[in-house]
């Protein structure tokens, strides 16, 4: 949606003059699709602050205009982004330009208002300026939102420059985790359903057929890690694994997480010394510790001893 120039009265009442709005009232039974994420940064060739923020868009027309801006630059018209913001960390909004950590902002976009050719001066600034006094910014710009906790931005020198095509992993919890525990992979761009997407943990890949995957949303995945035996840890108190996600052929960053032995991992009578005798392709296996036959459950590494219930190998 494109909006016109914003003006303010002497009483600092923020009024948004909407040039034209087409409202489509549609009954929708399916859940809304996950947003498409874009980077908003300073106009190319006019960089001064070296900062940026993340803009989620849902409307196809808005997404198309954002892509036009990326392809052709501000000259396509309506290059400025007007959006409502709220204080707080959402683990999506960040300075995408920051090295390595891509520093998180403690404010985030709650609603996209529209693209504009100009905005009023009170909305001008930068992501860094908002971050320096989030509550003050919201207090000064909330007249047009109707909510004292929601402010507005419309930076004069910032436009859409990049689409975030690959998923982003921000954090893995708990830290540390134990064998067989469910971990939470948090970030954005995972997609609202798993579909053909894949999780990679170490050298193993888990698709939608895996019983280990317990939850999949655009910003959070829950997956149960394998039951690492005592011998896997050796003499170490912990070992690290790396996790990544592939969505629509695009690989996320790899995030490291720590695994520590559970309370029963290295008990002398458990199957950490079991060493399941695995003969791939056979229907039954023998646990060389307790000599019980065992059968295949789930993916390649998920083989369970029917007596001592160790997951191997």
Overview of the structural elements:
- There is one protein chain.
- The chain has 4 helices and 23 strands.
- It is mainly beta and 313 residues long.
- The chain folds into 3 domains: 162 residues, no CATH class; 92 residues, Immunoglobulin-like, CATH 2.60.40.10; 42 residues, no CATH class.
- Strands 12, 13, 16, 17 and 18 form a 5-stranded antiparallel β-sheet that branches. Strands 19-20-21-22-23 form a 5-stranded antiparallel β-sheet, with no helix packed on it. A 4-stranded mixed β-sheet has the order 1-7-6-8.
- It is elongated, with a radius of gyration of 25 Å.
Which value, in Å, is the CA radius of gyration?
25 Å
The N- and C-terminal alpha carbons lie at a distance of 55 Å
Tell me the overall shape: elongated
Report the β-strand fraction as a percent range. Answer: 25-35%
Run of helices and strands: EEEEEHEEHHEEEEEEEEHEEEEEEEE
> Any low-confidence stretches, pLDDT <50, length ≥5?
5-30, 269-284, 287-291, 294-302
Taken together, the total number of domains comes to: 3
Number of helices: 4
Counting DSSP E segments of at least 2 residues, the number of strands comes to 23
Average pLDDT confidence is: 81
Output the structural class.
mainly beta
Fraction of residues in helices? under 10%
* Biggest sheet character: 5 strands, antiparallel
């Amino acid at each position: 949606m494109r909006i016109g120039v914003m003006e303010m009265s002497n009483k600092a009442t923020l009024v948004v003059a909407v040039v034209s709005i087409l409202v489509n009232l549609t009954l929708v039974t399916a859940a809304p699709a996950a947003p498409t994420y874009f980077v908003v940064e300073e106009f190319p060739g006019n960089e001064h602050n070296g900062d940026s923020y993340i803009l989620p868009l849902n409307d196809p027309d808005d997404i198309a205009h954002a892509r036009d801006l990326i392809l052709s630059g501000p000259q396509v018209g309506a290059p400025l982004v007007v959006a409502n913001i709220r204080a707080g960390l959402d683990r999506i909004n960040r300075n995408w330009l920051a090295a390595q950590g891509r520093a998180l902002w403690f404010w985030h976009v709650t609603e996209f208002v529209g693209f504009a050719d100009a905005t009023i001066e009170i909305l001008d600034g930068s992501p860094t300026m908002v971050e320096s006094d989030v509550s003050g910014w919201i207090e000064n710009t909330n007249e047009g939102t109707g909510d004292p906790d929601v402010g507005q931005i419309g930076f004069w020198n910032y436009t859409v420059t990049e689409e975030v095509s690959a998923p982003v992993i921000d954090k893995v919890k708990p830290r540390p985790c134990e064998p067989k525990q469910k971990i939470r992979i948090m970030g954005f761009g995972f997609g609202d359903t798993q579909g053909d997407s894949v999780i990679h943990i170490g050298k193993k890949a888990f698709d939608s057929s895996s019983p280990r995957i317990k939850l999949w949303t655009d910003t959070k995945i829950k997956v149960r890690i394998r039951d690492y035996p005592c011998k896997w840890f050796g003499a170490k108190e912990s070992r690290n694994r790396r996790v990544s996600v592939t969505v629509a052929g695009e690989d996320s960053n790899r995030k490291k997480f720590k695994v520590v032995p559970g309370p029963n991992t290295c008990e002398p009578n458990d199957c950490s010394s079991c060493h399941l005798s695995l003969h791939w392709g056979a229907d039954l296996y023998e646990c060389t510790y307790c000599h019980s036959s065992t059968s295949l459950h789930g993916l390649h590494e998920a083989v369970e001893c029917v007596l001592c219930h160790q997951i191997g190998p």
